[in-house]
Amino acid sequence: MKLKQLWMSTILLAGIVLLISACGSSADPSEDGDSSCDPACEFGYTCYDGKCVYFEPTDGDTPTDGDTPTDGDTPTDGDNPTDGDDPDGDDPDGDDPDGDIPTDGDYDYAEPDLEFDYELVACDSNPGLSYPSLVARPNQADFGAVPIGESKVVELVLCNAGGQDLTISGLQFTMDTSPEFYKYHGALNDSSYNPIPSGYAMVVFLVYVPVNAQADTGTLKVLSDDPNTPSVEIPLVSSVKPTPIIEATPHVMQFAGAQSSQTITKVVELKNVGNASTAILDLSVVGGASSPYQVLEVTKGGQGSASNAPWSLAQDEFVHATVAMTMGDSGVDDELVATWTTDSGNRETRVTLTTGGMAICAVPVAEPDQTVRPLDTVYLDGTHSYDDNGIITEYKWEWETKPVDAYRAIIKDSSGDSIQGVWTTEANPNFYAELAGTYVVRLTVKDEEDEDCTGLNSDTVTIVAVPDETIHVQLMWSTAGNDHDLHLIKPGGYHSRDCSSANNQTDCCWQNCDTDHGANPSCPARGCPGPSNAPDWGQTGSRDDDPTLDIDDVPMRGPENINLSLPELGDYRISVENYSGGTNVTVTVRIWIFGTLQGTFRYGPPATAGFASGNHWNVCLVRVESASNIYIVPQEQDPDFGTVQPSN
Fold first, then answer.
1. Inter-CA distances, 77 with 80, 86, 90, 436, 579, Å
2. What is the rounded CA–CA span in Å between residue 569 and residue 490?
3. What pTM was computed for the model?
């Protein structure tokens, strides 16, 4: 009996943006791209080549997050009826256009406000070699200690030290790397710079933007046609510089309802939520003595009155400030400003003071927008939702859009129970991103008062599941209990119903390619080494150029995914075996190349009857002409295109 295994990976919070240039005019492999800036850069800026560079808190719908040909959010990605990302009504990918505001802290999707000159730079080489040779410098990208919300740039130089042109076919992050590492294929997909001539280099700009106090690590794989080292791994190392952050609760102090000459008092908490000590130097009302608002008392940590400023606060320590408002003839708005210290200068936290009578509704904050891999478990966060005069009591998480066939993508609480579309106390749900495509989740919140907030505010979070392999093939079928199997056949190979029993190493299927089936110990999705009889394609003994099957789904209706990162030259046949299903089943195959959906193929009702058990459907051919030129062979060039044949 065939067994099914679903593999999940947790999502880490970090931020590295990967910008590829071909490359900066003053690139030096010995430098990390950072130099001193005078004066020091403000919060949210990075010092690069002596300039303070701003990182806009966008959501990633720019070339830096992969919402260009790498993620499929183009007319070919499936935001149309062919890939299941329909109907979403989005613009065009459901990012609304991004949903992010400058205060949401989405620095992990930052885009530097820089223009790069796309030109190749010289590097050392051996022109006498008869092959290309990739040399990457530095061999480890060490970002050092970076304050939360700020950034650091490291330059990675990819030099062709061989005697023939070098083609960079891909940049991939390993499974232990946070999925918030992004790629920008600026020069990578430009034939003017890739392939790289002998003695020249392309430069990759790595930008690290930490969003929490945890150090982040990972590995960047550079794939090329270097015959000796087709895959070079670059460790990514970082630490977070201790950084204080003063957060005010509430953000708005509402003094509505006071009569003339009446005094109302309210309390605001100022807490150090960062990971370093600070001191509040001053706490004052902008309007000064003429303002109807005055600070009456400051207490530290609930321990009674504190002395006058400064108030020293270690991590998680707080002060409570009592603010009084004496109503005059009419209401007045003002601001309370807390000035606090950091290593790079003083910063401010502001609180709005108002006598307005409008309802203050709870504000939902759904995050983080992120790019993940198919089969990842995605963790959502609503804890930054807030209510300026109360507390959040309930959350409602529901789908705005997801891939049509993603029936296992169910929003669940920490106990594994479905909570989608109902009110709950769960602020940190999760779901299984079983298919490539765009997932948009809407969050609505309630506060304890629900002050006439009939049109409750809502926020959306967008997750894009992007295959990170060069070729990613997905199989789905319409009816559970009708087992179908996905096959990928190497150039010159042939289809076998049970590829391992037939000793067919040219065919990747459930019996020899499943990363769990027959493996001891079992492997994670896309993992190695897989079963002992796994096909060894390309370079003998290397798993980087071998195919893998993520899931062999028997009882349900898919998905089954086959992945291949380093294909060899030639035509690969994609086929589907009806292993034990009926003829009333519709089978769908989708093919991603370099992270972009390139084709969707269907066989079965209502267009035609399905094919019987013991037969296989020849879906199409995928042709690899070079490391950067891979495409689906047109129907007229494939005599077996769409045919059904008996299986051996």
1. 8, 11, 13, 9, 29
2. 10
3. 0.56
